[in-house]
Each structure stands twice: as C-alpha cells, then as structure tokens.
Design goal:
Length: about 450
C-alpha cells in the first residue's frame, strides 16, 4: 500500500497534521498508524474496586490510542510561548501563537463551544506573587476539561475517519528510506509493510524509546534533554480557590535561597483528581480535573517540579528520573503519599496518619516517606516553595497537605530537525513531544498544523 503521507502516532501532533492535510489537500492519500486503540475502546482497567493500581497493560489506555497522552487529560490548552515547549525557537513566536490560536478555534468548533478561557493579563496575583518572591508566568488557557476534551476528540475522529486510513493497534516497528520512498514496517502478526512519500513522526512521550532507536537506525543526531522531578500536592480546593477561580491554571516560579534552583507549579487541577501515569512500565503521578461540576472533588492538586539537566560525564537526564521513579515503585509498589506534616517532622506517613488527616486522598497510594526517595536538594526546594506558596494561598503548608511522589516529567531527547521540523531526510518530519521540542497539547497540535501546511506548500 502506498500513501502520499504517512503519520505515525494519533496524539494531538498526528491528529492535527491529518486534520490540516485533509482540509488543504483534496484527495491526498493519508494513513495514520497508531500503537493504541481507537478512542471508544480506550479503557484503563483500574476501577478502584477489583483493580486498584496499574497492571502494566501491553499498551497503556491512558497514554496510547486516538488522542494520544492527551485524551484523558484535563484538556488545559495553554496558548503561550512561555511554557509547554520551545516550538517558537523553530517557527517564530508569532507563528507559534497564531497556530495555537487556530487549533483552539478547531477545538471550540468541535464541541468546546461552552468552555472558558482564563488569562493572566491584568491579574492582581502577579503583584501578590512578586511580593513573596514568586513569579507568575503569562498565559492564556482554555480549560476544556477531561470530558469535553474527549467529546472534541470524538468529533474530530468522526470527521476524519472516512478521509484518512486509520490503523489502530498497529505500532510501527521500523522505517527505511529506499529509492526516495519511505518503507514503514508494522509490528503485527502479518508484519505488514506500507510505503509513503512523506512521513510525519508524532509518537509522543510513550514513543520515546522507539524514537531513540529510529534516530539511531537512521543516523539522525539527538541531544539529551532535561527531566523535571518533584511531587504532586493535594489540598482542600478552598486554599487555592481565589487564584484558580480567576486564573484556573497558574504557573508560578520560585528560586530557592541557597541553591538558586527554580521550583515551579505545573498542571493545576482545581477540584480535580490525582492519577497514576505509566510511562514504559514506570508509574509516576499526574492529575486532571473535569469541567462538569458534578464530577468535581473537594481537592485541588498541582505539581511542584525542579528541572535537571545532566551533561558530563553523565548525560541521561531521563534515566536519572526513571531510576528515582523506580525507587518509589520499589518502596511503595507504585505511588507514595505523605502528609506535609510528616515530611517536615522527619517521619513516614502511615495509613492511620493519612486517615486521621482532614484531606481525603483522591488517589489510592501507599503511605510512606518521600525523603527516602527524592534527593535532598530537590525535596528541600519543594518544601521551601510550599512555605512560599503558603504566603499567597494560606493553608498550603498545613500539616495535612498531601504530597504524592514521584512526579516526573520526562522530555524526549532533542531530535535534530530544521526550521521546518524536518530531519536531514527529505520529507521525514518529527513533531510533537517525541521531537523534544514540545511538551503540551497546544505546542504539539501547533507543530502538526505547521508541518501539514509546509507539506501542502511543497507538494
Ligand atoms: C495524564 C496527563 C495529563 C496531561 N494534561 C495536559 C494538559 O492538561 N495540558 C497540556 O497541554 N498537556 C497535558 N499533558 C501532556 C499532553 O498530553 C502531551 O504534551 C501531548 O499529548 C503530546 O502530543 P503528541 O501528539 O506529541 O504525543 P502523544 O499525545 O503522546 O501521542 C503519541 C501517540 O503515538 C503513539 N505511538 C507511540 N509509539 C508508536 C509507534 N511506534 N507506532 C505507532 N504509534 C505510536 C502513542 O500510542 C500515542 O497515541 C498531559 C499528559 C498526561 C499523560
């Protein structure tokens, strides 16, 4: 089978490439190969009753399938160059913002009509933060919410499914470049082979190991990226209510006094839930929240993260993060939860101590001691930031505040691509999170549109 364009991965990067290619190119033959299942069949087996923790499915329903890692995410669509990736370094700040805005209009017209945007523009919290040595980053965010995000994806799929050949449960094994054409080998029982003139790789974070292998097979240079390590904080929603009501998501940065490390808030989920995340068999913590008030919890959660990048002689930032996550998986069988009070008192949390607290955890995690897992420098930074946040959101440093560990944001290594997001091979593009350039729904989606338009202009 031969296609004009083959897209590998049906996350936001892949989906929006397909969307724009279909829109701009009547009759173009496009195929999408996806390791996971179609949207309606994605179901994590954790039901909280029979199955309470991750059982390491062959493909993780949370990370893989139509919609990619974003399908069950909170759908916080951040329109900003300040975080979420460095796409602007390749395509320019204005173009990056324009493309993010464009994708936002697609989301809105496909089911997100009733959702709201929040802006940091003239908020009083900027000054309040500065008074306490905290820095609020500028952004505009649309909160789709987990359930609307799902509806939007469903509507986009319905629109595309008759115009694009989707192959689910079809992980691509390898790519060969033979006689100016790409040969795509599928890892299924028939070992199917397809051919494409142009290939867009968008395999996300879950495809990081595969991307590493492909880069090495094709001799495409790569560079190590950073890793973000820390905890997820869960507290009563009232504590952050004033901030979340106005801004929904606030990215606040703090510089620690002794080490000058930057600690930052990440992925804030008012009235949300804390969840497990499985990346290549390693369980880390994450969070999301629903738009529908009926699905709201009494808690708000957000991550506190410190970025680390290694250079010489050790370069493997992700490996460092992985090993710390493995340590928590070894000690806790998955995620560990600890009361802030227990952490600062130098004792482990126990089930009894958690049960006696005033906060009901939204994730079933193992009570334990995070100081046995997270390096002192990082944990000190997290504790220092919790005290700093306590000044703008009193109650953050309460003894019952829950800390889940570890939260790790793995970044794919940087794949060498040019300003068109193309590798040294003609018409072989690497976009979205697997390029190491993006790490958000908005930047990944924008990169898909960008490449689709480039392909259209250079047919
Ligand atoms: C729980 C959670 C919550 C999140 N919340 C937010 C949020 O609120 N806002 C935000 O901006 N970002 C959020 N993110 C991050 C966001 O989801 C990602 O940045 C975004 O999905 C990246 O898009 P992508 O297309 O690059 O990759 P992905 O979404 O990871 O998609 C890649 C796809 O490629 C497939 N694939 C992998 N390898 C292969 C292969 N060999 N062959 C075929 N297919 C393959 C995978 O199955 C996957 O479906 C969240 C992530 C998680 C896990």
């Amino acid at each position: 089978m031969k296609y004009d364009c083959i897209i590998i991965g049906a996350g936001p990067g892949g989906i929006f490439s397909a969307y724009e290619l279909v829109k701009l190119n009547k009759g173009m033959k496009i195929a999408v190969f996806e390791a996971g299942k179609e949207l309606a069949k994605r179901k994590c087996p954790i039901d909280g009753k029979k199955i309470t923790s991750c059982i390491n499915c062959k493909t993780c329903a949370i990370m893989n399938g139509f919609g990619g890692a974003g399908a069950f995410s909170d759908g916080k669509y951040n329109i900003t160059n300040n975080f979420g990736g460095n796409l602007w370094e390749y395509i320019g700040k204005e173009t990056a913002l324009d493309l993010m805005e464009y994708v936002d209009t697609i989301n809105v017209s496909h089911g997100g009509e009733k959702t709201r945007t929040f802006e940091t523009g003239n908020t009083k919290f900027k000054k309040v933060c500065l008074e306490h040595d905290l820095h609020l980053l500028d952004a505009k965010v649309r909160h789709l919410g987990t359930e609307i995000n799902y509806i939007v994806l469903g509507n986009i799929y319905n629109e595309l499914k008759d115009k694009v050949d989707f192959f689910f449960e079809s992980p691509v094994k390898s790519i060969e470049y033979v006689d100016k054409i790409y040969k795509i080998n599928i890892d299924n029982i028939n070992n199917d082979t397809y051919y494409g003139d142009k290939v867009i790789i968008s395999v996300g974070r879950s495809g990081s190991k595969w991307m590493e292998k492909i880069s090495s097979d094709l001799n495409i240079p790569t560079q190590s990226n950073r890793v973000d390590l820390g905890v997820r904080v869960e507290l009563p929603a009232e504590v952050f209510q004033e901030i979340t009501n106005e801004l929904y998501e606030s990215k606040i940065v703090y510089k620690t006094k002794n080490t000058n490390d930057q600690v930052r808030t990440f992925c804030m989920n008012p009235h949300g839930v804390v969840v497990n995340e499985n990346t290549n068999g390693i369980i880390t913590v994450n969070g999301h929240s629903y738009e529908d008030p009926k699905l709201h919890t009494k808690n708000t959660n957000f991550a506190l993260l410190v970025s680390l990048q290694f250079s010489e002689p050790f370069k493997d930032s992700n490996g460092y993060g992985e090993n710390i996550a493995k340590l928590s998986n070894m000690l806790g069988g998955g995620i560990i939860v600890q009361r802030f009070g227990d952490l600062v008192s130098g004792r482990r949390s126990t089930k009894a101590r958690i049960d006696e607290g005033f906060i009901t955890p939204t994730l079933k995690a193992t009570p334990g001691d995070l100081s046995l897992i997270i390096p002192k420098r990082i944990l000190d930074g997290v504790v220092e930031m919790i005290y700093a946040l306590d000044k703008i959101a009193p109650g953050t440093a309460n003894m019952d505040t829950l800390l889940y560990g570890v939260e790790v944001k793995f970044y794919n290594m940087h794949v060498e691509i040019d300003k068109n997001l193309m590798t040294k091979y003609p018409n072989l593009f690497v976009i979205g999170d697997c390029s190491g350039v993006t790490h958000s729904l908005s930047h990944a989606s924008a990169s898909g549109i960008y490449v689709a338009r480039y392909i259209t202009e250079h047919k």
